[in-house]
Amino acid sequence: MITIGIIMSFILCTIYYFVETVRNGMGKKRWITAGIVLGPMALPMFQISKKMNLRKVTGFHSVYLNA
Question: Which pTM was predicted?
């Protein structure tokens, strides 16, 4: 049962990474592979990459506020 839970968490993380990469215009293959191999352990790297991608598009000296 634990194995099934671990496999399901990896699959759900992969789906989450795919949806978020499509929304943010990031590389799909890289994050799908990371989701399959690392699963939830890739989440901090994903969040940092997403933030850096946003900063690259908007500029490093601009202010971005989340509502």
Answer: 0.79
